[in-house]
Known about the structure:
single chain, alpha/beta, binds adenosine-5'-triphosphate
Amino acid sequence: MSGPLLKVENLTKHYPLGSGIFKKTIPVIRAVEDVSFSVEAGETLCIVGESGCGKSTVARLLMRLVEPTGGRVLIDGTDIAGLKKDALHAWRRRMQMVFQDPYSSLNPRLTAGQIITEPVENFERLGRRQRQALAADLLRNVGMSPEMMHRLPSELSGGQRQRVGIARALALRPSLIIADEAVSALDVSVQAQILNLLLDLQQQMGISFVFISHDLGVVEYIGRRVAVMYLGRIVELAQCEALFAKPVHPYTEALIAAAPVPDPTRARLATPVEGEVPSPINPPTGCAFHPRCPLAVERCRIDVPPLVPMADGRVVACHVRAPAGDARHLAPVTGDHPLYPVAMSDTLSIRASRVHR
Ligand SMILES: Nc1ncnc2c1ncn2[C@@H]1O[C@H](COP(=O)(O)OP(=O)(O)OP(=O)(O)O)[C@@H](O)[C@H]1O
């Protein structure tokens, strides 16, 4: 199959606020605005950003758990919005989700074995022996003993529950797994085990991941490419290594600067950026980051910056750092660069509360 496994084109989701029976125009929450990206077979794309920037809504749109206001989601070139019953059923086998909270996402009344074989039983009837063999296989896949199939979720640790959640997602042998904050509820040491498990499974089975996280350390560990979201939009999408080595968008730089690192020099450089994340009901005009951005110029207040391709393949939406039509950004984005008039890490950071590294 040529082309990307997953292609997202101009995806937009506005949640209406109220029914608007007596109002002419209904205010909306602009949760996701004009988001585009693709994911190759066997690749991990991470989506990172502060709370409320629209990450989970993207996940729900990909899974067709909510309908988009605009844009398309294509799997192997097929628009999932146009799928009829049978095709939709077949497509559902290919995309699975792993949720944030292993405590609430598993049915407390079912055993681990019943939980992980349930997706298969939605498609075909299994005899008792078949079900047990499948459960044993799936548990082994995620590094658990087959005996665990008889346990209830309440009899498992947080890490074991998340392994059960992953085994369940693997049951239908999907091409793509969407993991929404899949390790956020776990202890750091258990997080590492689960991330390694996901990387192993990816190598063995060639699964693609869309990995959603607010945690930059997790993203740097697991991602190949990273999309940074701010107030519903992607502001920078780059190879993981390049993004962490040299963030281009001022918001990306602020996120990385704010993440707690064991390096005290870096922590001292960071000073809080003015203001809070604006409301998605009435977002700022132009670039949504401009009220908090020390580099903002008049144009940032007026025009939404387009995503502009840079020399290293990343795309950046910033009138100052990646002006559309300016040939300078085609130069390599490492070292001294004419588009870095200010050392951002000297001037800017954001609240570190939900950004860990
Ligand atoms: N069902 C809904 N109805 C109305 N507004 C919603 C709904 N779901 C999300 N929103 C709003 O859309 C915006 C984006 O929310 P979303 O959950 O996608 O962000 P997020 O980046 O995943 O945040 P978090 O990391 O806190 O989960 C927020 O302002 C949120 O309040």
